[in-house]
Amino acid sequence: MFESLEQRQANRRRKIKRVLIIGTAVFSAIALFEFTASPLQALFLSDYARKLTYKTGDGPSDSIRFPKAGPYDLRLGYARLPEFSRRLLKRDFEISQQARISNAMKQLDGYGLFLPYREKSVAGLTLLDSRGQTLFSAPYPRYSYSRFIDIPRTVAYTLLFIENRELLDPNHPRRNPAVEWDRLAQAILEKGMQIVDPKRNVPGGSTLATQIEKYRHSPDGLTLTAGDKLTQMASASVRAYLEGADTRVTRRRIVQDYLNTVPLAAAPGYGEVHGIGDGLAAWFGLDFEAVNKLLWNPRPTPETARAYKHVLALLIAQRKPSYYLLAGRHQLNDLANVHLKLLADAGIIPAALRDLALRERIVFADHKARPAPNGDTFVDNKATNAIRVELARMLGISRLYDLDRLDLTVDTSLHLPTQRAVTEFFKQLRDPARVAELGLYGQYLFSPGNDLSRVIYSFTLYEQTPAGGQLRVQADNLNQPFDINQGAKLDMGSSAKLRTLITYLQIVADLHAQYAWMQDEQLAKIETAREDALSQWAIAYLRQTDNRSLTAMLEAAMGRMYSADPKEGFFTGGGLHHFNNFNNEDNRKVMDLWEATRNSVNLPFIRLMRDIVRHLIYRQPGAAAQVLADADHPERKTYLEKFADREGQLYLGRFYKKYKGLAPEQVMAQLINHLAANPRRLAAVYRYIHPQQDLAAFGAFMKSRLANAGAYDDKTLARLYQDYGPEKYSLTDRGYIAQIHPLELWLAGYLIANPKAHWDDLVRNGRAQRIEVYQWLFKAAGKDAQDSRIQSLMEIEAFQEIHRRWRSLGYPFASMVPSYASAIGSSADRPAALAELIGVIRNDGVRLPVAAINRLDFAAGTPYHTTFARRPPQGERVIPVAVAQVVRKALINVVQEGTARRLSKSFQLPEGGQLALGGKTGTGDNRFEVYAPDGSVLESRVVNRVATFAFFLGDRFYGVITAYVPGEAAGQFRFTSGLPAQLLKLLEPSLQPLVLAGGPQPEAAKLPPPAEKAPVTQPVLPAPAAPAVPSAQPTPALPEPAKPAKPAAPAAKPEAKAEPRPEKPEPPKTPEPAWPNPWRGEGYFF
Q1: How far apart are CA 238 and CA 119, in angstroms?
Q2: Which residues cross the membrane (predicted)?
Q3: Is residue 854 within 8 Å of residue 413, measured between CB atoms?
């Protein structure tokens, strides 16, 4: 019997339907199983993950990719590595190692997914010393679970109940932890319903793995689009199978990572908070270890319940941490109570724990009451803080807070044992009993009544290596962030003589290069200015000597004789000054520069600086002399205009401080308030300030200011209005009439017309007025006044050249005081800069870079791994070899027979002999003094006291040690540079393991031999009188053989800062300014 067509079609449809049903059932079963157990995902993704590899190779990588803008990537510095690289490559660093990623990982990056690797939950800045020992470590987060098994079960299960209940399901070892399909489906459904009901609350569908991807790598840690969500899920899925198809270990790590890194807003005084451990400390003031210990306790107690509730609060608050942990704290407590009931109902916590926890309230820490750092926090970390500051500057990071969170390990040059030993030694010096035990009470040291807590000590030690100067120790006892060694500007007295001496010897070397090749006949024809003693001496020496080598000439130059007589007055810095020696016994001596350096005598160096300045002024024969001699010389006007402009700016600066920030009407009131009710003065001022105002406005002003306004009728006011019109008088004459400095009058008018004007505007637009005020100076009848001012400017120009030379030797400041007093410290210095100069001398005049940071290792163990190392240094010659060697001999003299001779037997070598030790001492007793017209002191106030010793030790080490007392408390101290010298001697046991670690070093060099018998000038003696303009240097007589250096006195005699004693001044031709005037040597810096 045959089936009809209809029956056959019906049967076929039934078969297809059965196949579809079975197929759908099978597919659904497979899909359900896949969604639950993920075997296919595990198979595919684990195989794919094996291709996602990276390795570190030497040199820069051409196959590296960096993340964009995720909070984690920014915080750890991964996203900023291209920027860091650009900065470091400009600062003598090179990429020594960098990661190479596989082609599959490059492809994944091209898809827009986050690079998969085993991410760090804890990272931060680590500084290592020269031996690899940890100097500083800032792990972030501070508190974390290092292993999954350390997490209390109640904490882990509570997290899973709230966020990801199926994550640790042991029945499916290959499960993809990135997706919980049921929660995801519910979230999608709820999101669709939200379109109809915008107020509907949509629960999150993210797993812990996806949340980690979001808050670590998505921009701002947010999911803004469906594409963001897919990127997070895909990245989490790939990352889950990096270690194979079995994800059970990975899933446990996800729980651990989440608890360690979940964002919990930013706590006041703490900063960003990540992780439960830091959250407990930052928000509740709870100890992480104590909380965990309580939560491991199986028996519920009130303490356990309190600890659990605070952990629960953080797990709830992570959804909206900025709200729940700040403004929404009451709601957080209510939510915690709701969750306690749910958790107990689900069997996560016992009912007893629930009941106890419901009785507790969440208590937040009082952030205003956080304890301040205790003890010597800054003292102990001074070197590491200095390195962190330098590191932040190198990387362009504005806050140490951000620097400390970088995934970065830095190799530094510090030697930790010595650093600690020096720091502990300085701490001991607060104790009077310990100071007495160390023998630090005595002449030139401490007195029994001194407040030892006032003294700040600083010590820096470098080692010269093939990699340049390596900072080994940087310590001080100032318990503040400020770094005395690198940040202070200190008048360190006679240490400035070292810079002066080097400048002098450099000039001698220049003269040697200029003249040594010439024949005697050629030398005889050279004309030099009679004021240029150095050129005259150089030519005379070269004509007489048989040995024209540079070394011989330099040693002969050290043999030139100078008087130490303090009676002569010196016109410098625009005024007449007198200087003193520390030891009055030196006042009657004439000595060579060997002895003056060895015993640190002031007056020879004042006269030496005068010779240097005059040489720089007159080194071009005739140029300066012609300007001074010829009243019609075209350069005179240029110099006088320059003087008028400079002097005028000083007055203008004083007046600007008076009127700065005032409104126009306030400027006018300030200008005329001190004027008497004099109609002529008021009219002169008003008509200058308001030249366009009509007679009615003028009359109203005059009547408001005049004491008897009714006595002035309209005719009188009209006459005053006409007589004092703007075209009637010059600025100078109007100022005379008003009894107001003309520049003050001009400045007030300018500020009233231009209320938004700044200082630069005044300087730029007021030059003509400044020169106009000094027209009296341009008159031929005032040639003597012109000469004195021209010479002052020539002196400033000479000091600009000296400053340029000092800067090439590492002088740290952008200006110096244009005065001979700079030779004995008035231009200040910085301990670190002095140490650098000693390093140049120790290295035969070649400056190598000084460094404390040698290697930066970013993102180790990641596909972003990049290591920067310093390039081999390129030395720069800044001093001729012969100059460095002669200076080095002079510095050894200072230790063996001079002001630092208490160190002469120090640093003995084990096999006998001693390390070569040389240096320069300096003492600054800095005071603010006010003088009467007759030169007597009206007021003397101590500003600070500084004593320093810059030294080299053997052929590798050099540094500086400083004692400093700021403020008026310095008045009770009388220590000199003998104190730092003695401190260095006491530090010998702490330093020896380091300085002798490299093996034997050369023994101390012998004293330099007497200078060869070569022509020298007559001693530079004091002038019989001190004229207002410096007298010319006499032409040198026939040279004599230089005398050998005399032995020093038995006890070290430190130097003292010169104290200017101005003579009675003549009445000034222009009003005297009320603030320091540079032309009188009162602190002007160009």
Answers
A1: 13
A2: 20-44
A3: yes
